[in-house]
Amino acid sequence: MRRLMALGMAICMGVTALTGCGGSSTGAATGAQTEQQSQTEKESPEESNSSESGKDAGNTEENTDTQKAASGIDKLVFTYVVSPLNVPSIIEKNQEIFAKSFEDMGISVEYAEINSGADQTQALASGDVQILYAVGATSVILSAANGADIKVLNMYSRSPKAFCMYSTDDSLTTPESLKGKTIAGPAGTNLHELLVAYLAEGGMTIEDVNYVNMGIPDAKAGLDGGSVDVALIAGATAYQAKQQGYHMVADGEGLIKAIIAVAVRQDFYDANQDVIERFMKAQEEISGFMQDNQEEALKIVAQELDLEEEAVKEMYGYYDFSMEISDEDRDGFQKTADFMLESDMIEEALDVNTLFFQ
């Protein structure tokens, strides 16, 4: 049955190349220009300064045109995913940071609200989306294992404590106590990996429980209604379960890395270095806003997610939003890839170093 689930998740991905062309124009000095320059030298300082100012404005316009030509595109589509607590995405859209960053390049910005990791990577492969701004490591690995052109540009977040297993039965305190229980949550995700890692601590596998593949809202609803014994949930949904007094069986601390990344296609990266550079500067601006305006940032997130500010503040402490790719991040990716191989989600071992730009 696991093989059928894995095959169902695998996607045949077609890749559409996005290429850019660049050009520039140069002007040659003419006799008329020389004469005009001589005349300018006779002008008053004010007139001369005015002339230089106009020249600078013309150069600026020319530089902008060159930027537009170099990019070769006029639109960028980013994924927009707010759950479980994707603060950078919420802040970016609220402050219109991407739109402002690409405006002088003549590039418009659009958002695709795609919550499924499999659908995200498919949209990237088809060219409908150019940048996956928050995609799970499991989704990146599965896409790459199926031959898609996908690479990790940098990190988005790490948040093992935000991914949890909740139950209404407080006697479920060990992996062994879950034997035969019905456990619901989304397959091929950090939560799925959490369950497998937790069971392994008791020498068990997912075959020892009744695992049901369903989304976070449905898993929580099943827990509320009593049709499941344990729900694999995260973010605001996990916080809600805590507020209801439900029993937390385990969170991801020490079990998973819970890595979320930023991903693009290799061909897009190669053809649009100017866009990539501008995007990464925009990411730094987002990080700066979050650090310098934390209270405002939390209010913006609370409003977007319809949560109390105290709830957002508590959950915010679970997250590391640094962009840099560390050795620990690479190790986390490899651990996830190994988990997916053991779970029959991918058929061959994957060296995750191939997922990063060299």
UniProtKB/TrEMBL annotation:
Q: Where is the composition biased (Low complexity)?
A: 26-39
Predominant location of this chain?
periplasm
Check the record and name the CDD domains matching this protein.
PBP2_NrtA_SsuA_CpmA_like
Map out region (Disordered) in residue numbers.
Answer: 24-68
> Which superkingdom, per the lineage?
Bacteria
Q: Would you indicate the residue range of the signal peptide?
A: 1-17
SUPFAM superfamilies, per database record: Periplasmic binding protein-like II
A Pfam entry, by short name = NMT1
Q: Name one GO cellular component term.
A: periplasmic space
Keyword Signal belongs to the record: yes
PANTHER family xrefs: ALIPHATIC SULFONATES-BINDING PROTEIN-RELATED, TAURINE-BINDING PERIPLASMIC PROTEIN
- What name does UniProt use for this protein? Solute-binding protein family 3/N-terminal domain-containing protein
* The organism of origin for this protein: [Clostridium] citroniae WAL-19142
